[in-house]
Amino acid sequence: xxxxxxxxxxxxxxxxxxxxxxxxxxxxxxxxxxxxxxxxxxxxxxxxxxxxxxxxxxxxxxxxxxxxxxxxxxxxxxxxxxxxxxxxxxxxxxxxxxxxxxxxxxxxxxxxxxxxxxxxxxxxxxxxxxxxxxxxxxxxxxxxxxxxxxxxxxxxxxxxxxxxxxxxxxxxxxxxxxxxxxxxxxxxxxxxxxxxxxxxxxxxxxxxxxxxxxxxxxxxxxxxxxxxxxxxxxxxxxxxxxxxxxxxxxxxxxxxxxxxxxxxxxxxxxxxxxxxxxxxxxxxxxxxxxxxxxxxxxxxxxxxxxxxxxxxxxxxxxxxxxxxxxxxxxxxxxxxxxxxxxxxxxxxxxxxxxxxxxxxxxxxxxxxxxxxxxxxxxxxxxxxxxxxxxxxxxxxxxxxxxxxxxxxxxxxxxxxxxxxxxxxxxxxxxxxxxxxxxxxxxxxxxxxxxxx
Length: 452
Ligand SMILES: *Cc1c(COP(=O)(O)O)cnc(C)c1O
Hints:
Lyase, Ornithine Decarboxylase, Chain A, domain 1
């Protein structure tokens, strides 16, 4: 038998954008339906653009995250990060799943109360809490996460005046090996500020220190950073046990897990680059379990996961306004949605699918929004089949932050629908009208009339 000849394997780098063995296509099939509902019909009924949220995806993601942590650590509690998406219907899906509320302003606090979340299950974060808001939070027994010393002193004053023991945690910032460090919030671990604040609270005798909190960044791709953060919080908790013989009730590791979006400039797609909940859970739970707590004094692990919990559940449907050629010959497609409602296109390359059948032919294009602003770019480069006026698209992974950071600039904000677990559509926010904007305005008498 003739010996087969050895051929060494060749590893070839594939580049997106230029020709590779898959051709230049990034889209292979149109997305004509979302969970059984035709994109065309949704747009006909609710207008374009339109945000669509999948309840099924939210619940599945929540359960996956919960399972990842619960299989590794005995006491876990999630708190929904309101600022990530505080539509009431969305919050209530999380609350039905068992999630507490995590708020960063008085406005969000009030929203959580209106949703019916018990005060002691609303975590009050953020640097700006007014005296009135702090009073309400103290009255309701909400955990207040202290950001700075001025807040600590005010809470101390209020505790004396109200004859109530406020329940507090401190926010701790620290070096986790990820730079730039988020050191503008809370008290620093390395330089001793955090320990100082702890001593001030413990010796005040009128405030209950029930937890330690950190939120080390957002869209974090390194689970190891959470291991460092958890160890440092544990170290503080052990210090408190040693000096004051007091058990800290919870450690709150904040949010920040990366979603499956693709960061601009990332070589890999987000689906491949972002660690899963299992990896974050492994890093955090191992660090706490190894910290030396005796079994029945293990702290509750709180998590304020935002974007990783909801990004995939959100879609934006939109329509093509026009096509044109730029002076350099590139194709430009103008959409009816821009950075006004898709704020996250500043840092993500959102996946965009045509919503109708298309041919083999594709072309690199720039996708612009409808605003009269040069920065209104949805995608600088995207390889899509040519889209013509009135064609529709589906933008993926838009559930986090867009519906809270959107701005009312020269246009009205779109409607939002929720598709429930039986694929039924419910409208959860109305499309804005001129009326909804001008009703907040007031006209001084002398400006009421004019002659032209
Ligand atoms: C924004 C925020 C979160 C949620 O962050 P994600 O990166 O979306 O997970 C959690 N906790 C605090 C204090 C926050 O400010």
